[in-house]
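Revision sheet: structure tokens.
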Amino acid sequence: MRKSPSRTKATKNSGCWFTRLPTRWAKSRATRPISTPSRDRPTPDGVQGRGKCAGTFLAWTQQTDNNWFGEGEIKFFIDGDREFPTICGTGTEDYFLGSYGFPQSYSGLYSGTTLPAHEADSLPNRWSLYRWHVLDPITFGKDLKVTIQALGWWRSAENKYRKLNDHISSVAYWYQTEPHAPFPAWDTSKRNNL
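Predicted:
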């Protein structure tokens, strides 16, 4: 079987079997009343083929309250997972390596928050978060779906978790081999405009 020149070149020069670095942008906007539970937000969904997750960037906007937002689990559904993911994180702040929150901006090689908000700030609060999977690769053999929960902490007498209706935009990065399923067409409808 003959390999394409670009694939051969990538294999010889870098030792890497990946030939493409796709990205996918997704946006989730609050369109329901605050009392309606939110769903897990995909970041990306429907990736088919063989590859490696390279990282995620999130732009998170708190619209309705400025309580802590970072309790949602990030879930990696890999190679046929449906109900239960292969990887289920312990919270947004843990996935972005912020541990007990993001008290100030930080920028590391593999994670950071470059636009931190504070609970005392007036709404809307805006956060920018990134995480690169260089030292901890997440590989998939046939498909990948990644979701994040919009889940926060409600400071009250009960101290409860609270589902949020925040605005979340994401860019997911992954390496992928050929062949792969076609990527979805870019949605240019008015509802997707910024």
